[in-house]
Specification:
Oligomer: heterodimer
Number of helices of chain A: 15
Radius of gyration of chain B: 22 Å
Distance between the termini of chain B: 36 Å
Largest sheet of chain B: 2 strands, antiparallel
Helix content of chain A: 25-40%
Shape of chain B: flat
Number of domains of chain A: 3
Distance between the termini of chain A: 73 Å
Largest sheet of chain A: 9 strands, mixed
Strand content of chain B: 5-15%
Structural class of chain A: alpha+beta
Structural class of chain B: alpha+beta
Number of strands of chain A: 17
Radius of gyration of chain A: 29 Å
Strand order of the largest sheet of chain A: 3-7-8-11-1-12-13-14-15
Number of helices of chain B: 2
Strand content of chain A: 15-25%
CATH architecture of one domain in chain B: Orthogonal Bundle
Order of helices and strands of chain B: HHEEE
Shape of chain A: elongated
Helix content of chain B: 25-40%
CATH topology of one domain in chain B: Histone, subunit A
């Protein structure tokens, strides 16, 4: 067909995010949820699916679900219900997963994300509670065997299902980061991506631009990082586009993201919901939530990232961009606030926290909770720059020392004799020397070649061993060259 | 629907067997087809019971029933009931989708 190859498509994405809850024990039994225990060390008759056992719901799981539901503006169901999702696979020895189906605990909420500097609401269809499955190892000694570790079986998860409101891989990534930020603020999940605390499945379809009807969608599983969600979706959009342009229909199927090959491949044709034969879980009563409990949970919600960002903008004068970046991680935001409370200028404090500090933490794969120095240390460093004792360049050295050893910046500067040369007389001497040593450049500058100015500044800095106060040098040089 | 018993096609039996990861012989498929039809037929009898005023789900106890979030090791170890263990893992026939 003519025109087909110029056809513009728009992308429709919905995410299902699974987040592991930060409970001590599993969802329906007392087994520990600790990570990396020896195989089946944290397994009991309940999570091993032995006959005759009964599940008993962990109180905290409900509390955590309600916390996240309230934070995402959901309606909280006061009598939600568990359902059995039946499937046969050895990662779930009961042959069913206890999940929720038509009566989930949270429904109809939303979160706000920033798209090109503008707010966009992403609908939350539902949040439900369910148990995780065990881990299968196919690469054991016996090639004809699969090895089953049930430590993860029964670990509590929340599944957060979004409306198909996301329009690009970048939006999907931003949304996933937002959910991550919320669950860590609320302390319902550790949010440790390395340990698989958050995994996403992405439903994606294309439709001709401007049309309303949804195209056939595929589901991509196994997305366990913010980078992968963008890469996997970008790949899948391109794949579907090529299919549609070639006149081939999209097959509704489940695909798996392979981070190594940066591509998706077919996992299995999508089982229809009724293939799971959901039915109400007869071993568990309705999950009833007393109004008083709901109020109590609501009253103990922490300040959430949106509110914090607003406060940073309005009270501390930060830009929207800086405020959003700072609040993404609760610990980082709290550290920043502590630095400001120690008297640092908010804008400078934000620059240090998001710049040099973030870079170091990223390099060392650690977080602000493991720092060798307190907020006061960074505030002191910022004060030293503000009062002109050290230059911006010296500050880097001082910061490195602070970061590595935790040594007080003021002591470090005194010990190393790092303070900036601001004495006009001493600087004038150096400048006079530089000018008399370089008559050729002086002539060039006076002849109109302004660029040479930087050369003089550099020479003076060199003569001072990097200690000259650049602002004063600039002023003096201008005067002498005039 | 027809007036007689519900009909179960061989394709439906095969799909159910597939979901249950079972391999059935032709003869078994035919036997199950008849038995499934009988089971479904019985639902007509159940449907004739007036249930409009009865909630679809009730345990008889609507009070919250929770346990506190405290971890504790189980006294029952996998070794105590299974001989199909290797380096702590349960060993099952290989499954790969």
């Amino acid at each position: 067909m003519s025109g087909q190859s110029q056809m513009e498509f728009e992308t429709v994405i919905g995410l299902e995010i699974h987040t592991q809850l930060a409970t001590q024990s599993k969802m329906f039994c007392r087994c520990s949820t600790e990570f990396a225990a020896p195989p089946n060390a944290n397994a009991c008759p309940v999570c091993m699916g032995l006959p005759g056992v009964l599940p008993v719901l962990n109180h905290r799981v409900v509390e955590f679900a309600v916390r996240l539901g309230l934070a995402t503006h959901c309606k909280i169901r006061l009598d939600s219900q568990f359902a059995r999702k039946n499937y046969f696979y050895p990662d779930l020895p009961k042959a069913y997963q206890i999940s929720q189906f038509d009566r989930p605990i949270c429904e109809n909420g939303w979160v706000e994300i920033q798209v090109d500097g503008n707010p966009k609401r992403i609908g939350i269809t539902r949040i439900h509670m369910e148990e995780d499955a065990g881990k299968l190892v196919h690469e054991g000694a016996d090639r004809r065997a699969t090895y089953v570790d049930l430590n993860r079986a029964g670990v509590p998860l929340l599944e957060i299902v979004s409306e198909p409101d996301l329009s690009s891989p970048d939006e999907a990534k931003t949304y996933m980061e937002k959910i991550h930020s919320l669950v860590t603020y609320l302390e319902v999940s550790n949010g440790d991506m390395e340990k698989g605390n958050m995994r996403a499945d992405a439903n994606i379809s294309l439709r001709p631009a401007g049309t309303r009807e949804l195209g056939t969608r595929t589901e991509t599983k196994n997305i366990n990082s913010f980078r992968f969600v963008r890469e996997a979706l970008a790949y899948e959009i391109e794949r579907q586009r090529e299919e549609l342009l070639a006149g081939r229909p999209i097959v509704q199927e489940t695909r798996l993201w392979n981070p190594a090959s940066k591509s998706t491949f077919v996992m299995r044709s999508k089982e229809e919901a009724h293939d799971y034969r959901y039915f109400p879980e007869p071993d568990l009563p309705l999950v009833t939530i007393e109004a008083s409990w709901l109020k109590e949970i609501e009253a103990t919600l922490p300040e959430l990232p949106d509110a914090k960002a607003q406060r940073f903008r309005e009270q501390l004068g930060l830009s929207a961009h800086d405020a959003d970046l700072l609040v993404a991680d609760r610990r980082t935001a709290e550290f920043f606030e502590a630095v400001v409370q120690e008297g640092a200028d908010p804008k400078r404090a934000a620059n240090w926290v998001m710049g040099d500090l973030a870079a170091k933490l990223n390099e060392d794969k650690t977080t602000v909770t493991d720092l060798k120095f307190a907020a006061g240390g960074l505030a002191e460093l910022i004060a030293l720059i503000g009062e002109g004792t050290i230059s911006g360049r010296m500050a880097k050295t001082v910061f490195d020392a602070l970061y590595e050893t935790g040594q007080s910046p003021r002591n470090f500067v005194r010990e190393k004799g790092l303070s900036q040369e601001s004495d006009t007389g001493a600087l004038e001497e150096m400048i006079d020397q530089v000018l008399s040593d370089n008559p050729h450049q002086v002539a060039q500058y006076r002849g109109g070649k302004q660029k040479v100015f930087g050369f003089f500044v550099g020479q003076v800095m060199k003569a001072s061993g990097g200690r000259a106060n650049p602002a004063i040098v600039n002023g003096l040089l201008k005067k002498k060259l005039a | 629907m027809n007036d007689g018993k519900p009909v179960f096609s061989l394709e439906e039996i095969e799909k159910i067997a597939d979901l249950a990861k079972l391999e059935l012989t032709q003869a078994e498929k035919e036997v199950f087809s008849g038995q499934f039809a009988e089971i479904l037929d019985y639902f007509r009898t159940i449907e004739s019971v007036a249930t409009d005023d009865i909630p679809a789900y009730a345990t008889g106890d609507s009070s919250p029933h929770f346990r506190q979030d405290v971890a504790e090791n189980s006294p029952v170890s996998p070794e105590s009931f299974s001989e199909f263990l290797e380096n702590g893992h349960f060993k099952v026939p290989r499954v790969i989708e």
